[in-house]
Amino acid sequence: MFNIALACRIKIILIFILMLLYVINLLIIIEMPTDDLFTEQRYKYDRVIRERNNRDVEQDESTLKTKRNKIKDMMLHAWKNYKLYAWGKNELNSIKKTYHNNSIFGTCEIGATIVDALDTLYIMELMEEYEEGRNWVLNEFSLDECNAFISVFELNIRFIGSFLSLYALTGDSLYKEKAKYVADKTYLAFLTPSKIPYQKINIYSRQCEQGMTVLADCGSLSLEFTYLSEITNDPRYANHKKEINKALRPLRTRNGLYPYMLDPSTGKYFNEQVLFGANADSFYEYLLKTWIQSGSKDNEMQDWFIQTIDSVMEYLIKTTSDGFYYTTGKYGNFTDHYMDHVSCFAGGFFALAAKSSIYPNSSMSLLSFAKELTRTCREMYVTSKTGLGPEKMNFSPLMHEVEPFYGVDRSYKLRPEVVESYFYLWRIMHEQKYRNWAWDVVQAIEKYCRTPFGYAGLQDVYDEDPEFDGVQQSFFLAETLKYLYLTFSNDSVLDLNKYVFNTEAHPLPIRNR
Ligand code: DMJ
């Protein structure tokens, strides 16, 4: 009798302790997520956070539709004026009502805006305009007369990338042909002894420009070349990519970083200057995205990413005394405390890395880098007079004390990187603030960059009445407006589990796992 009563009491106490442990465990899950973002616990944590966030989330489909329609209207305004004043040329000058020729295309007139914008038109279901563009591609697009040095990187990300994306979205074989046509024209650039490609080629005279190639340029071909090989059953394109990666991977400094200036004739780096922003940016992006594209199977890319990203976090990201994260450059022991607008892609990049679980034990740190860097970029925008951010910020510790958030290059070129990060963080975290921030950008662009004849960048974002730079960049239609539109769309529109965006925002399919 006595033993049974004691056993019952012990059982009750044990049940009580177990329940207590369960409650404590739940509290820990809610307040202190583990570092492994996508473990079972992490999913639980995500759900709790999402439910909490979703209370404030704009659910009303008609409000979202109104916002999407506004962005579609912006796209139409940009497209129609380009069509009126610059059709077939690369970009529009919306102030002079004529075309603008960007030096990255040499003097070749190859309809960069048409090609770059086509998948955005298709995604926005602007079918009449999409058909106009498709007809131009079918009947007019040609590189055969292109007698100037043109960037292989730009041909890849804007032209091959866009055609491949259109092929993936529509199944129309015209785009597969065109992607192959452009890639075949770039062939010459890969015939170097080192396998580091030349940066620019003259398609007409079949010459390559001698000189240095930058890291971003030779490290941002793999998404497009892999997919092109897949759909054409021609392994040559993927082989170029493999050879470049083989030549590139050993070129690290002692710190594990990749210098940005490379010499195709020797296969060595020019000096030890390393960057995270312009000229290096998409190299890091493609390490991650090539792995995602492979259905998370490309172990070599995963390994390369993990090896590199620790050094990036250690040496290329700093914080100000008041806690703002920013990206830098490095030359030996000298740190260059400038962050360019282009570097603001980092928020989206780190968020996508966390989501993809490429570096499982570091997902939480990747995510906090993502949020913090995006907070900095948002601050760059809201501390200007126009609500748009400068091309380049000075974060030198001294400067920051005196003049917080002040741009050294104060122009705004309609660039996408800040809204790109808002898009990824919205999709991954579902926190309403990212949609709000994106909408603030829509309004600022409308107020300051819209002209009667299209859109233009600004000379000085700190001026209440800024002058225009006149240029409607093709990436404004390809990227800025696309990311804005997608931020107000349902997650199933270009689902991040099915598509990976190239560095010009052209979506490519992820291979089935
Ligand atoms: C785009 O052409 C691409 O995003 C590229 O990777 C870097 N910069 C521009 C837009 O700013």
Could you explain how this protein is built, in words?
The protein has 513 residues and is mainly alpha-helical. It contains 18 helices and 20 strands. The protein has a three-stranded antiparallel beta sheet, with helices on both faces. It has a three-stranded antiparallel beta sheet with strand order 3-4-5. Strands 6-7-8 form a three-stranded antiparallel beta sheet. The longest helix is centred in the first third of the chain and has 30 residues. The structure holds 1-deoxymannojirimycin. 1-deoxymannojirimycin (DMJ) binds next to helix 11 and helix 18.
SSE layout and pairing:
Layout: H1 2-31, H2 40-54, H3 61-86, E1 91-93, E2 98-100, H4 112-123, H5 127-139, E3 149-151, H6 152-170, H7 173-185, E4 200-202, E5 207-208, E6 213-214, H8 215-218, H9 222-232, H10 236-248, E7 261-263, E8 268-269, H11 281-293, H12 299-316, E9 317-319, E10 325-327, E11 329-331, E12 334-336, E13 338-340, H13 346-356, H14 363-382, E14 392-394, H15 397-402, E15 407-409, H16 417-429, H17 432-448, E16 450-451, E17 454-455, E18 471-472, H18 474-487, E19 499-501, E20 507-509
Antiparallel strand pairs: 1-2, 1-18, 3-4, 4-5, 6-7, 7-8, 9-10, 11-12, 13-14, 14-15, 16-17, 19-20
Helix pairs in contact: 3-18, 4-5, 4-6, 4-18, 6-7, 6-9, 7-9, 9-10, 11-12, 11-13, 13-14, 13-16, 14-16, 16-17, 16-18
The chain binds 1-deoxymannojirimycin.
1-deoxymannojirimycin binds next to α11 and α18.
